[in-house]
Amino acid sequence: MTSLAGKRIVLGVSGGIAAYKAVEICRRLMDEGAHVIPVLTKGATRFVGRTTFDALASERVQMSLFDEDDPIPHTTLGQTADCVLVAPATARVIGAYAAGISSDLLTATLIATRAPVVVCPAMHTEMWEHPAVADNIATLVERGVHIVGPESGRLAGGDEGAGRLSSPADIVAAVSRVLDVGEKRSDMAGLSVVVTAGGTREPIDPVRYIGNHSSGKQGYAFAEEAAGRGASVTVVTTVDRPGPLGATVASGVTVVRVDTAEEMAAATADAAKEADVVIMAAAVADFRPVDPAGVKLKKRDGVPAIELEPTPDILASLGASKPEGQILIGFAAETCDVADNAAAKLNGKGADYIVANDVTAENAGFAHDTNEVLVLASDGRVHSVGLRSKRQVAQAVLDLVVADRDGRANVR
Ligand code: PMT
């Protein structure tokens, strides 16, 4: 049981069909002891009456930027909140918030607050997948806003697809986690996890190398999510933890620094021997110069003919020597035919899962703070994880891993 006792939560409700679920969210927050202040947009009241929230919440519904008792309700709300939660968040509210436009009390409060903000999008699939919405979500993630959902499922009008509001239970649990009062997840306690991160560098000469655009963000997101859930984690990486200057690695994560595919292969093979879960998020070069020059190549000597040879395929060799019970997760960075190419990697490399990344997709793949992936399991299941922060992608994939391990344990 989580406890939000005494926490002041501004519950922003905007105008979508999922607004009716905000009533349940309000009730659950109240049950957890939170002090809930509902802020409804005009659109929200088309879907759910303010009387319902007046009756359930700690304070009466607020809607207007101009109040007789308080001349500046948005700053009062923003400054006194412990958390601002928007559920459901429409494309309009998300867009206004990302652009810094305060067109009503809810958007003004969002801009006026320094409290953590949790945004729970809900809209039709076409809207959710629109590049403008994707850009706005990426902007909010970059600014540290917590995005919860949406899920895939039945939508208004009988349509199916991505865009359904996350469940009230998940949303309240996310608020608890954000405020650090939630029950810490410990479903990976006792597990040993190895993660690779970053792009390898294959030397051409002492100053040049063959590399790629991997920032290590996705790999570190896995490492920190697994450590946060109790695992002991080794990250084999070519880069320091990406983030603001001086960002430190989460406790419970051991860092092994490498440069080349060869070094990554050796360090990963060593760490993976005893690992329960191995996650190959690094972008490993497939080719390297056969004979790197010992001194810097000179332009005056002409364009060098660089002979290349294949690097060791780390994932394939881990797949071939996988200890009983170990879960091996490979990635696939693709620019076309994503599902087919990922399926070929799943079959060819002995992995239990392939996390397929369309690196040409908007706000996904290399260096972004957000990602969207397709997870292919060796038993034929396919899970789609829509655009969200890299940490939330890691969370979704590790949820599958934990369920998989629990399933295997129950079969024994
Ligand atoms: O680091 P970020 O900026 O956050 O970006 C994240 C990411 C795009 C790098 C990540 O999400 C991703 O897709 N990683 C895999 C990149 C890659 O090398 O894909 P691939 O399709 O070339 O390789 C398939 C799998 O084989 C990968 O798990 C890779 O780690 C592994 N591999 C590849 C070559 C090789 N010689 N040995 C390997 O083990």
**What fraction, in percent, of the residue positions are helical?**
25-40%
Q: Which fold does the CATH topology of the largest domain refer to?
A: Rossmann fold
**How would you classify the helix and strand content by structural class?**
alpha/beta
Measured between the Cα atoms of the first and last residue, the distance is: 30 Å
Shape: elongated
Mean pLDDT: 92
Strand order of the largest sheet: 12-11-8-13-16-17-18-19
DSSP strand content: 15-25%
Gyration radius, in Å: 24 Å
Which CATH class of the largest domain applies here?
Alpha Beta
Number of separate strands: 19
User: Can you tell me the CATH superfamily of the largest domain?
Assistant: CoaB-like
CATH-scheme architecture of the largest domain: 3-Layer(aba) Sandwich
Outline the low-pLDDT stretches.
none
Number of helices: 14
Count of spatially separate domains: 2
Biggest sheet overview? 8 strands, mixed
Which ligands occur here? Answer: ligand PMT
Brief summary:
With 412 residues, the chain is of the alpha/beta class.
What report would you give on this structure?
The protein is an alpha/beta fold. It folds into two domains: 8-183, Flavin prenyltransferase-like (Rossmann fold), CATH 3.40.50.1950; 192-411, Rossmann fold, CATH 3.40.50.10300. The protein is built from 14 helices and 19 strands. The strands form five sheets. It has an eight-stranded mixed β-sheet with strand order 12-11-8-13-16-17-18-19, sandwiched between helices. Helix 1 (19-31) packs across helix 9, helix 4 (73-80) crosses helix 6 (105-112) and helix 5 (91-99) packs across helix 8. The radius of gyration is 24 Å and the shape is elongated. Bound molecules: ligand PMT. Residues 196, 214-219, 261, 280-284, 286, 311, 313-315, 330-333, 345, 357, 359, 365-367 line the site of ligand PMT.
